[in-house]
Amino acid sequence: MVEKDTLDCKTQVLKKPFLRWTGGKNWLIPHLSSLTSKINYNNYHEPFLGGGSVFFSINNTNKAFLSDYNSDLINAYSQVKNSPAELLKYLKTFPQNKDFYYKLRDSNFSSQIKNAAKFIYLNKCSFNGIYRVNKAGKFNVPYGYKSIDLKKIEQLIYSCSNQLQSASLSSAGFEKSMSNIKKNDLVYLDPPYTISHNNNGFIKYNERLFSVLDQIKLSELINELRNRGVYYILSNAHHPQVKKIYDKFNDNVLTLKRRSLIAAKSSARNLYKEYIFTNIK
Q1: Which of 22, 177, 221, 242 could be 47's S-S partner, Cβ–Cβ 3.0 to 4.6 Å?
Q2: 34 φ, ψ to 5°?
Q3: In order of start, what are the domains of the chain with their CATH numbers?
Q4: Exposed (0-12), middle (13-18) or buried (19+): which is 272, by Cβ within 10 Å?
Q5: pLDDT in tens, 69-85
């Protein structure tokens, strides 16, 4: 007989992500809910998926199209969707200590399920959940002296697996992933922040991933979506150049405040402003 706790774990929906993600949008969820409550939309699209906190919070019952340029990330989502039990089997065998962290970080697997378990382990145990690779494409974030609550991660993985059943997952750039968005669909856009908050500095790492020219291309695609009758919500850094790029459609521009979680010491975590651009009135 299957124990009730195990059955509940496999069927519940917590509306929470299974990953830690720097720049994640948990803080945005109350504001997003107030916006989406104003509209009736068909399919949901998120081309910069990252940690997926917005998708999981919505608990979308329609078809969802989720994508990200990071193929390792999308593989982790695919394995959570299709093989949660096997994924957890591997994850539970990994020792939780510094030596194993670095050993696993330097390991390569041919198995997609093992790569997904590796990705989740490194995400949970790394410094601040940062995803960063070197010029050779190797993950190089140091050990963060974190441990994995295996009971909690099991609950989250099964919950997210349930929510991902209606989702189509793909590893693609934003231009390709936005081609199938139709009238009355909703798209949430959270591109890597090319420009740092509240000052004139460029983020050198993200500038390689998502340049100012990419921001301009994204603004042009947003204009196409608007012309198709698509609802969009875009979050971005609170910076004059960002406002100049996106504030040209006579749409809503919201300024929201959040606290940075990147600094090692809580006393060093500053209050930042971020922009939300949307055609939802």
Answers
A1: 177
A2: -65, -30
A3: 4-278 (3.40.50.150)
A4: middle
A5: 999 999 999 999 999 99
